[in-house]
Specification:
The chain is mainly α and 465 residues long. Helix content is 72%, strand content 0%. The protein is globular.
């Protein structure tokens, strides 16, 4: 491997098509298939508020992506948000983002997506061959290790694999959207009451909980930015990829949820065990349809795992290149030209989180889906906090660094960043009420990062410029 002290760079091997599919693939993974149940089983009880939650979080995500595109085009370097936060708020905040990404956001996302892949894989297998709890854990571990190897041997290989999975998952979601109408099985009676007869404080709290659930399906919209150093013509392609990719996802998500509710009554969605997509295909085509749907979900969650594993190591690579993390993480493999050490370390911590989730949800009534939900809730608070800081970096850098070239300026500024920040604040307040254990756990990890940063800067003063 090359010496990290040489400040190695990564080759630009990805075009606009790759970039758009990285955005789409980074977002569409497991949530669109598993989180519809959470909303239906909650206290909203009506189609209108449920679809409003998907639209609201979609608009929230689009506003964030339109803002962060300015930063990505202005600073197209490996690390993405780490670089933006470092430039806007200083090294400590940039470091805490990378710290939280490693310990919570990125690795827990990888673990959750691997669990979701195994859940759906079990639905594909005949009942006699289905995996027990131990077999599911081993399979999730093997999946992460296999994808780790693919990412080590080449960015182009990993990107081609994720491009293929994105095409498959979009085709599958298109089938979910179109087939109920083509087969005449879309029943408006399944929608029930569109809106509750009365709206109380309980309703607004339930809407907040629903939006927390929907944040997971939309999580991953920043995944393109850490690989900016490997994208050709980043000043043009990064804003285009973010705008096009997020818009595609919002439209697909809203239409897929409409389709779910036209095929299945609310109580059927709320009671779903194998994922709403599988239940929708079961209603349309019987048990064979359910297996086909489960295979589609496997492709989607597998692709989401691939994308998340691909993009994360570039953050730790950039931080190590700045002297913020151990120097080995800034190594570039001499043959494959990938940040191999960062890829391996990320995968190993994701394996630890899988083990922790299995132990945490190891009761007699717990299932793998409970470990999945625990991991996704663990991700959201820390991610939302730092995504908000990244969006806030747009006005900060406009004042602090007006000299930097801005080939793209945030569309709708200042409304788009303000909408994103207000929405993030509302959801974080909701999490303090309704997801306190997960929020507290995430906060503890972030606080630990502060202590580590102080220790590291005192022991290595040269790291702080």
């Amino acid at each position: 491997m090359t010496s990290p002290t040489c400040h190695p760079t990564l080759p630009r091997v990805l075009g606009l098509f790759d970039a758009v599919l990285l955005v789409v693939g980074g977002i569409i993974g497991s949530g669109i298939f598993f989180k519809a149940k959470v909303l239906a089983a909650g206290d909203l009880h009506s189609f209108g508020p449920i679809i409003a939650a998907w639209i609201a979080v979609g608009v929230h995500t689009l506003c964030g992506s339109l803002a962060i595109a300015e930063l990505a085009a202005m600073l197209p370097h490996a690390g993405g948000p780490y670089v933006y936060l470092r430039e806007a708020f200083g090294r400590p905040v940039g470091f805490l983002w990378g710290w939280t990404e490693f310990w919570i956001i990125r690795t827990a996302s990888i673990a959750a997506l691997a669990c979701a892949t195994v859940i759906s894989l079990n639905e594909v297998l005949p009942s006699s061959a289905r995996l027990g709890r131990g077999g599911q854990q081993v399979t999730a571990v093997a999946l992460i290790l296999g994808l780790m190897f693919v990412n080590v041997v080449g960015t182009r290989w990993a990107a081609s694999l994720q491009n293929l999975t994105v095409v498959v998952k979009l085709a599958f979601l298109a089938a979910i959207i179109v087939l109920p109408f083509a087969l005449g099985r879309a029943e408006t009676a399944n929608l029930g009451p569109i809106w509750p007869e009365s709206v109380s404080g309980t309703f607004w709290r339930a809407l907040g909980v629903g939006m927390i659930a929907v944040l997971w399906p939309y999580n991953g919209w920043v995944n393109i930015t850490p690989v900016a150093e490997e994208i050709r013509e980043p000043q043009r392609n990064l804003p285009l990829a973010l705008g096009i990719g997020v818009t595609i996802v919002v439209v697909v998500y809203v239409l897929a949820n409409v389709s779910y509710h036209l095929v299945l009554p609310m109580e059927r969605i709320a009671a779903s065990e194998s994922g709403v997509a599988a239940d929708t295909f079961r209603a349309l085509f019987g048990s064979t349809g359910a297996r086909v749907a489960a295979l589609g979900v496997v492709c989607s969650t597998f692709g989401g795992t691939t994308t998340t594993l691909l993009t994360g190591p570039r953050i730790y690579f950039a931080m190590a290149r700045d002297g913020m993390l151990p120097a080995a993480l800034a190594s570039v493999h001499a043959t494959f030209r990938t940040p191999a050490v960062a890829i391996v370390v990320q995968a190993l911590w994701a394996l630890v989180l899988i083990a922790v989730a299995f132990v945490w949800k190891s009761g007699p009534n717990d299932r793998l889906i409970d470990a999945f939900d625990a991991l996704t809730d663990f991700v959201i608070f820390g991610g939302l906090l730092f995504y908000a800081l990244v969006v806030a970096a747009v006005p900060v850098l406009r004042r602090k660094r007006p000299d930097l070239p801005r080939p793209y300026r945030t569309w709708g500024y200042p409304a788009t960043p303000v909408i994103y920040l207000l929405g993030s604040a509302a959801v974080m307040i909701s999490m303090l009420y309704d997801k306190l254990p997960q929020t507290a756990a995430g906060t503890i990890f972030i606080a630990a990062g502060i202590f580590y940063y102080v220790y590291r800067t005192k022991s290595r003063p040269s790291a702080e410029s």
